[in-house]
């Protein structure tokens, strides 16, 4: 009740009293700000669809991105982004960044916040003060000039982004993701994955949620199969596991991990950032998700791999990732090897 009260109060104080009647004309738009200050790497990988497709249709438009310290890495070397601004995720520090953006007099801001804005989020939007503001399912807010109305809980994220691009009059849309690697990262991966007679499996066991992390027992069951098959295993894990067939990737820069994903034969993961990176490189993928098909918010649908080379596996209903049968995972690996 308190959260709903705060949202209502925020709307009363910060929302515009009357919605703007001005119509968006993309031929008159010279700058777009894309808000990705949620700092999520996987979301940023998917957002690369927008950078590329907007630039293809409107090469004159300057594309600015507000991002975090973690997900800014995906913007490195991206030729479709003109300038990035870093959020510290602390309003009293970020207000200086918001004021810099305000001075740019941005024509259009794309906001991906799926929920009702909180007070400080509202204030952020008012400070930036772009000429047009586009949001998702924000038709009841006057501050948003354009609302792209899609089911954020069930539609695949690429469908949502496609609808955003259509609202901007972008045509011939490709939903491929972009990751641009420097030569030093490519060389790092090629130096590790150089025996083409062996199969290299990138195995990721952890995510930000304990509920979506493979247990150590389940991890060892899978590894036992991989040892017997004499696979080389690039193990991206927080477990202390060693074996002559295991390679531990460098973790001081996520690009080293991305490069190993690009050159591995198969990706086995529960982490959506790794899933979307595998999609960007069109890798053979086994992606394990929580079974949430009975829930209102279906993450396994919205953030599914969504490409031909991917196999999606679901845990048992109302149970964690580790509830999935090891034999199902092994059968999926075998099918990708054929």
Can you tell me about this structure?
The chain has 338 residues and is α/β, with parallel strands linked by helices. It folds into 2 domains: 2-167, Glycogen Phosphorylase B (Rossmann fold), CATH 3.40.50; 184-337, Glycogen Phosphorylase B (Rossmann fold). 36% of the residues lie in helices and 16% in strands. It has 11 helices and 12 strands. A 6-stranded parallel sheet has the order 3-2-1-4-5-6, covered by helices on one side. A 6-stranded parallel sheet has the order 9-8-7-10-11-12, sandwiched between helices. Helix 9 links the parallel strand 10 and strand 11. The longest helix has 17 residues, at 41-57. The chain is globular. The termini are far apart. The relative contact order is 0.11. The model has no long low-confidence stretch (mean pLDDT 93).
Name given to the CATH architecture of the largest domain: 3-Layer(aba) Sandwich
CATH class of the largest domain, named Alpha Beta
Parts with pLDDT < 50 across at least 5 consecutive residues = none
Helix content range: 25-40%
- N-to-C CA distance: 55 Å
Shape: globular
**Major pleated sheet:** 6 strands, parallel
Q: Estimate the strand proportion.
A: 15-25%
**How many separate helices?**
11
According to CATH, the fold-level topology of the largest domain is Rossmann fold
Order of helices and strands: HEHEEHEHEEHHEHEEHEHEHEH
Based on CA atoms alone, the radius of gyration comes out at 22 Å
**Helix/strand/pairing class, anyone?**
alpha/beta
Looking across the biggest beta sheet, what order are the strands in? 3-2-1-4-5-6
Domain tally = 2
User: Which superfamily, in CATH terms, is the homologous superfamily of the largest domain?
Assistant: Glycogen Phosphorylase B
- Please give the number of β-strands: 12
